[in-house]
């Protein structure tokens, strides 16, 4: 096991009715906040009214910034930064999924910086301070409610890039599984794929003697496998929603990383897809992850056998270890397909003519490698896009 620092300061407020505590929690930080949300789902579900009431009941003033799009855009981040600077706002409340939360985090960093916030995304500046952020989560997927990262798309060139810092972990995350009942099935499915991908990115490591985190990863994946199908039988299955929602936070708050080095190639390769084709991040991962696995499994066959046996219950009496590993990958693919996700580029109607461009963007024009488990070159990435056809 490697040395590690583990920080996860986010206060999780979990369960029925917890959204009504938002004003009470927010006022501990500020009486003047920026309230960030998406394209209106929170108005349809009635959550908006509850948030406004709770803020008003607690004498918290707010300015709204709505219109966050999935694969959130830099232009709205600039708008939020301007509002914060002009109005002396010192707290940001995000209500929604990963896109609203990531927009809030990027604004939080940019509001205390004199230069262009994009500097942080391209490594021109290091994050030294950020406004505090609070969250009400409405989609179990990205883990952004407690993660140290934010991912933003710059429309100028369609670059999708992330920042990482413990300073942008939210102060609190309010998580009521009932708020997820209104999710379209496709978003539930894409969210599930994202959660599973966050676990698998960590699972496939070259670090040895990481038994505890291996078992935690396997248990979290099994929780997903057992509970996600229940949401397709009954979207209002509270217990299944609760298991999946909590798994989503655990998958990406850093706990499963402790003492090991994750891979993250699939995420990087996927981000190029969602930047250009604007598909849901989780759907992109359902396509890329199995293709990545087929490309790299021989690098550590034992680990892929372990994945097949411990996560997917593949029968060890299979005589051929390679067949066991491949069966594990197939079961993952079947799982994604069964919840209605595309598992090939073709199924997502993505054309095959920009592989080179995406691989270039991913590897800084072929000068860098991607991933830790296997360090992939530009050529490898093109091969993986080809395997995903
Ligand atoms: O915009 P609204 O109207 O709210 O609708 C949203 C949006 O259309 C809708 N939705 C959310 N909650 C709902 C709901 N509809 C009905 N009922 C509800 N309860 O769902 C749609 C998708 O929302 P979005 O926030 O875009 O989805 P998600 O949470 O999957 O976020 C995806 C973004 O997060 C990034 C992704 O790359 C992508 O840009 N990621 C962020 C990470 C992080 N910060 O740690 C890590 C991830 O790996 C990921 O890269
Ligand atoms: Zn992800």
From TrEMBL:
What Gene Ontology cellular component terms go with this record? cytosol
Domain Fe-containing alcohol dehydrogenase-like C-terminal intervals: 188-386
Q: Does the keyword Lyase apply?
A: no
Q: Which domain of life is it from?
A: Bacteria
- UniProt lineage: Bacteria, Bacillati, Bacillota, Clostridia, Thermoanaerobacterales
The family database entries (SUPFAM superfamilies) matched by this protein are listed as:
Dehydroquinate synthase-like (SSF56796)
* UniProt GO MF annotations: alcohol dehydrogenase (NADP+) activity; butanol dehydrogenase (NAD+) activity; metal ion binding; methylglyoxal reductase (NADPH) (acetol producing) activity
Q: Where is the Alcohol dehydrogenase iron-type/glycerol dehydrogenase GldA domain?
A: 9-177
| Organism of this sequence | Thermoanaerobacterium xylanolyticum (strain ATCC 49914 / DSM 7097 / LX-11)
| Enzyme class, first EC level, given as a word | oxidoreductase
**Record PANTHER family:** ALCOHOL DEHYDROGENASE YQHD (PTHR43633)
Q: What Gene3D superfamilies does the record tag this protein with?
A: 3.40.50.1970, Dehydroquinate synthase-like - alpha domain
Q: EC?
A: 1.1.1.2
Q: What is this protein called?
A: Alcohol dehydrogenase (NADP(+))
Report whether S-adenosyl-L-methionine shows up as a keyword of the record.
no
Keywords attached to this Swiss-Prot or TrEMBL record, sorted alphabetically, are: Oxidoreductase
